[in-house]
Design goal:
This protein is an alpha/beta fold. The chain has 2 domains: 87 residues, 3-Layer(aba) Sandwich (Rossmann fold); 129 residues, 3-Layer(aba) Sandwich (Rossmann fold), CATH 3.40.50. 42% of the residues lie in helices and 16% in strands. Strand 5, helix 7 and strand 6 form a beta-alpha-beta unit. The longest helix has 23 residues. The protein binds NADPH dihydro-nicotinamide-adenine-dinucleotide phosphate. The site of NADPH dihydro-nicotinamide-adenine-dinucleotide phosphate has 25 residues, from helix 10.
């Protein structure tokens, strides 16, 4: 293997430390404790684990954590009423509605009911619009974490060729926008892209956010490229055991890449850390305070 491994766990630990330091300053100097409210509908085990981890990390950073559990037969109107209650609660600076929601609820309607300034997931159309027009909104956590890791590894990204595989509103699209804002030349590949391997081969930076286990093969990677693997896929091996893999064929890609994120331990840990950082940013903006350095 020639690539250096981008250690998302260590990176996330650093971000969390910085967040905790900022929270202490806000408490001491401004009597402000940032608060994050998480709304979980139903009992999906994976969502329960995510919410528990978010809660633990929020409290560990010295912030207030508010958990709201709702039955999976809750009506859309009642869920939106809960969001409105949180919109009006001055102790809550960030609101996150854990996705996916049950089928009878329109996810977009719920996301649009969150105050844009409390939308720490950055999924509200106002925030996507601000990202697309260079404004100061809330930026989705996973792509923001990816761009932080890329800048840490490569410094200035200006002029680099970047290919983002995947165009979801949660990862691919905002990732491409963030890379464009860093003056990369950005290509977005998706399920209809022709000769995708040749498209990826052009890239100095490859971000894979597809949800297809090991779709991106090692020989698609240009020598020395930086590879960020957002995918989290659970596969069953021949011996019946399950294993987490990314959207990139790690071993062969690591033979060619200059640097690569592993799965697990790459992008995954960054997402919660950035969620905490976004909550601090939101709290400062709502209080009209400059964010501590
Ligand atoms: P979506 O399913 O919303 O989007 C997947 C995208 O991949 C679509 O744009 C789709 O194209 C594209 N795609 C699907 N198949 C192919 C293919 N064969 N070739 C090229 N493109 C393809 O997924 P998400 O963006 O929500 O998530 C992507 C991955 O990232 C998942 O594994 C998810 O678990 C993971 N993830 C990890 C996070 C973390 O680390 N914290 C957070 C969020 C997601 P098209 O639009 O044409 O259909």
């Amino acid at each position: 293997m020639t690539a250096s491994i981008i250690d998302g766990k260590a990176f996330a630990a650093n971000v969390k430390e910085t967040v905790a330091r900022k929270v202490e300053t806000l408490k001491n100097d401004h009597d402000l404790t940032p608060g994050l409210a998480v709304v979980l509908v139903g009992e999906d085990p994976a969502s329960q684990v995510y919410v528990r981890n978010k809660n633990k990390s929020t409290v560990a950073a010295g912030m207030n954590s508010f958990e709201h559990l709702m039955n999976d037969d809750v009506s859309e109107a009642d869920l939106i009423a809960k969001v409105n209650e949180l919109n009006n609660d001055p102790a809550v600076h960030g609101i996150l509605v854990q996705l996916p929601l049950p089928k009878h609820i329109n996810e977009a309607a719920v996301i649009e009911s969150i105050s844009p300034e409390k939308d720490v997931d950055g999924f509200h159309v106002i925030n996507s619009g601000l990202l697309a027009t260079g404004g100061k909104g809330m930026v989705p956590c996973t792509p923001l974490g990816c761009i932080m890791m890329l800048k840490d590894k490569l410094g200035n990204l200006s002029g680099l060729d970047a290919v983002v595989v995947g165009r979801s509103n949660i990862v691919g699209n905002p990732m491409a926008q963030l890379l464009l804002n860093e003056s990369c030349t950005v290509t977005i590949a998706h399920s209809r892209t022709k000769n995708i391997e040749d498209v990826v081969r052009r890239a100095d930076i490859v971000v894979a956010a597809v949800g297809v286990p090991e779709l991106v093969k090692g020989d698609w990677i240009k020598e020395g490229a930086t590879v960020i693997d957002v995918g989290i896929n659970r596969i069953t091996k021949d011996d019946g055991k399950t294993k987490l893999v990314g959207d990139v064929e790690f071993d062969s890609a690591a033979e060619r890449a200059g640097a690569i994120t592993p799965v697990p331990g790459g992008v995954g840990p960054m997402t919660i850390a950035v969620l905490l950082a976004n909550t601090v940013t939101a709290a400062c903006r709502q209080a009209g305070i400059e964010e501590p350095a």
